[in-house]
Amino acid sequence: LAFALAELIDNSLSATSRNTGIRSIQIKLLFDESQGKAAVAVIDNGRGMTSKQLNNWAVYRLSKFTRHGDFESDHSGYVRPLPVPRSLNSDISYFGVGGKQAVFFVGQSARMISKPADSQDVHELVLSKEDF
Length: 132
Prior knowledge:
22% of the residues lie in helices and 18% in strands. With 132 residues, the protein is an alpha+beta fold. The strands form 2 sheets. A two-stranded antiparallel ribbon has the order 1-2. A two-stranded antiparallel ribbon has the order 3-4.
């Protein structure tokens, strides 16, 4: 569970890495049964994803490091940090958890809402573990 949560936080750290202002990352544990089942929410003020990028995220075994061709990616300037074993200073994805596996380790479904920084559009992806 710790590595799954760390992976989700690492994704937010990556998304906010180019912010010129404040980097905001919130982790919320939601236990209000009147709103449905318990949930984990990771909220950041990163650059956001387009609908195509959200859909690409949902493709099994499609890493942000191996996307080519039709897959839209914005990791051209990404430099993998030197590994620091079991540390948030390292690239957590390096350990093989991955965002897709992380969300389904924590729960049975994922709901991602994103607004690209240069757009007025808000995109949503809902995916169940069963569908994935």
